[in-house]
Amino acid sequence: MYRTVLKQLIDENGLKQTWVAKKVGISAPALNLLAHGKTLPTLRTAQKIARLLNTTVETLWPLEDDDA
Known about the structure:
This protein has helices spanning 6-12, 17-24, 28-35, 43-52, 57-60.
């Protein structure tokens, strides 16, 4: 499992995962896997999601050894 706050940010912004998936050009099941930390996105997809949520890739997927 990968550490991520994607699901939390989607929920906090009152968005639907299907809407986010469509906006960034991936399938809803693929976004669900990302949101639950079961897989990692490509860099381009991560950038699109971060931009859509007005945050950074590093915030969405912090490094495993980053305790900050």
